[in-house]
Amino acid sequence: NTMLVALLFTSACTGLIGFLDGTILDVIIVAQPALIAGMIPPFLASIADIGDSEYQNITYGVIITVGISVGGGVVPSLLGIFGDLGLGWLGFVLLAGFMLAAAIMLLATPRFGQD
Asked: What is the chain's pLDDT, residue by residue, as a tens digit (115 residues)?
């Protein structure tokens, strides 16, 4: 449940980056990455439950590689492209939408919240 709340809050903060300005934007820009950093331990704990224990090294390797590639490469590049087109706000709103979709998929997981 902590992961779900954190993901929803981070999604809302990300979407608000596209619409706000001034001091409140400064607060959101500080809060959004701070909450993401706080989500790392629950994410790693959740990854530990995926698949057989003998294959967890592969699971961690794939998830971390894809996460770094997307989070550190694809997403910033797309946000830059949207910014160059004068649609920076739309990039953040779309990113928030993808994060919200992840939260919805988490809720749709049959065993979510049972452990």
From this structure: 777 888 888 889 999 999 999 999 999 988 888 877 777 777 777 777 777 778 888 888 888 888 889 888 999 999 999 999 999 999 999 999 998 998 888 788 777 666 6
Compute the distance between CA of residue 18 and CA of residue 94 in angstroms, rounded to an integer: 10
What is the rounded CA–CA span in Å between residue 95 and residue 17? 11
- Residue 22 C-alpha from the chain's centroid: 24
Rounded-to-integer distance, Cα 95 and Cα 63, Å:
19
* End-to-end alpha carbon distance in the chain: 10
Contact 101, 2 (CB under 8 A): no
Against a cut of 0.70, is the pTM above it?
Answer: yes
Per-residue CA distances from 18 to 34, 78, 85 (Å)? 18, 14, 14
Helix and strand tally (H, E) in the chain?
Answer: 6, 0
